[in-house]
């Protein structure tokens, strides 16, 4: 089945230019430390386009041509490749990238060429915040959605939190949003720790956290925000934070990263997606098809990529084509569409996709080598007061 899927994708890429085409550029970090995220995102995008077009890979009789470009996780390369996609390849819409730093470099290019860029799955708030422009839409969740849903799951009167995050836009935006969201729950942040993205030894950072938390009163939690390899959760858990009355907490992650969660049964947090949580026809199709084609369940960013593909097809249908960017923007602003997570809606003010998140509790289950995020409750989009970009 995997071979058949690859042939389908190749057929899309080889579609003849003699016929009307809809050109979509996927500009993302195929290589580098986030390549697992990238592969999931691309597979999800292809599956979304397939599902939304009933397998034809056509919209209103026009063939979809999918153009792939590898940013290598480098902002300057990402910017140049997006310019190439819009300028040389005449892409109507672009999707990507994986890294928030690369995304921030790419945003001005969309405005310069007056073409839509759907950001998926880069997370930093500033993408749909201070660095936003009207050509940017985001199907992925932002740092505030991560933070506020985790604050809802973890916060409360008497809760004292320390944070550990990577020292770049993803980590700092995430902590800033989490800090603000926690204040509304009555919880407080006692200490913030930032480390380089390639850190592998967390001893010094953990010791600083323990020192700052040791004598505090209340329910003490260490909230970890991390992307990519070198996840610190297991290493810090091995240092026995419970000696200081500290519980580790974290949001959801890809299946490979959830292996570290197995060491902390009962841990709670909020997640963007886990394949067994949403109950709807699109997710049922995604799970069934992904198992058939890849012999594995869809992961965190597979669902996000699929949401982007579904949004593209819905927007082009509503706009009557892909060539008129103004018509696309008009169609997408306020647009609600169905995804593996259920309905999403592009907010008019900043084009951020509003969506549900999921409060989970980690369980150990037979046959799974990772901690399973079992649903406590769905946190609806109406329950999260997601800040709107600066006007």
Automatic annotation (TrEMBL):
Domain Leucine-binding protein: 21-363
Family annotation (InterPro entries): BCAA_transport (IPR051010), Leu-bd (IPR028081), Peripla_BP_I (IPR028082)
Gene3D superfamilies on file: 3.40.50.2300
Keywords from the UniProt entry: Amino-acid transport, Signal, Transport
Family (UniProt): Belongs to the leucine-binding protein family.
Record-annotated membrane-spanning stretches: none
GO biological process terms on file: amino acid transport
Pfam family, one: Peripla_BP_6
Family annotation (PANTHER family): LEUCINE-SPECIFIC-BINDING PROTEIN, PERIPLASMIC BINDING PROTEIN OF ABC TRANSPORTER FOR NATURAL AMINO ACIDS
Name assigned to this protein: Branched-chain amino acid ABC transporter periplasmic branched-chain amino acid-binding protein
Cleavable signal peptide: 1-20
Superkingdom of source: Bacteria
């Amino acid at each position: 089945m995997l071979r058949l899927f690859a042939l389908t994708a190749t057929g899309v890429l080889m579609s003849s230019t003699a016929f009307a085409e809809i050109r979509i550029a996927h500009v993302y970090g195929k290589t580098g430390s986030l390549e697992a995220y990238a592969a999931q995102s691309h597979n999800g995008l292809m599956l979304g386009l397939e599902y939304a077009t009933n397998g034809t890979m056509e919209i209103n009789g026009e063939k979809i041509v999918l153009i792939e470009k590898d940013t290598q996780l480098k902002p300057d390369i990402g910017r140049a490749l997006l310019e190439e996609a819009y300028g040389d390849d005449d892409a109507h819409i672009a999707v990507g990238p994986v890294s928030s730093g690369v995304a921030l470099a790419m945003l001005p290019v969309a405005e310069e060429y007056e073409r839509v860029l759907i950001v998926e799955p880069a997370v930093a708030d500033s993408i749909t915040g201070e660095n936003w422009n009207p050509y940017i839409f985001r199907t992925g969740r932002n740092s505030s959605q991560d933070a506020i849903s985790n604050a809802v799951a973890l916060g409360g009167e008497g809760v004292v939190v320390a944070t550990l995050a990577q020292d770049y836009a993803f980590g700092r935006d995430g902590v800033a949003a989490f800090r603000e969201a926690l204040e509304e729950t009555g919880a407080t942040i006692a200490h913030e720790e930032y480390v380089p993205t390639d850190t592998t030894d967390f001893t010094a950072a953990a010791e600083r956290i323990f020192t700052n938390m040791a004598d505090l009163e209340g329910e003490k939690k260490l909230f970890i925000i991390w992307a990519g390899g070198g996840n610190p959760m297991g290493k810090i858990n091995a240092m026995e934070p419970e000696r200081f009355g500290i519980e580790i907490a974290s949001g959801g992650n890809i299946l490979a990263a959830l292996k570290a969660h197995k060491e902390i049964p009962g841990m709670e947090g909020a997640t963007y997606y886990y394949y067994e949580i949403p109950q709807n026809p699109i997710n049922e199709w995604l799970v069934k098809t992904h198992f058939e084609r890849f012999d594995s369940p869809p992961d965190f960013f597979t669902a996000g990529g699929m949401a982007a593909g579904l949004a593209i097809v819905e927007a082009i249908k509503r706009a009557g084509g892909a060539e008129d960017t103004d018509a696309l923007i008009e169609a997408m602003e306020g647009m609600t569409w169905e995804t593996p997570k259920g309905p999403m809606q592009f907010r008019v003010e900043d084009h951020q996709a509003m969506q549900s998140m999921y409060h989970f509790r980690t369980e150990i289950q037979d046959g799974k080598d990772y901690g399973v995020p079992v649903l406590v409750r769905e946190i609806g989009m109406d329950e999260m007061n997601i800040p709107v970009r600066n006007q």
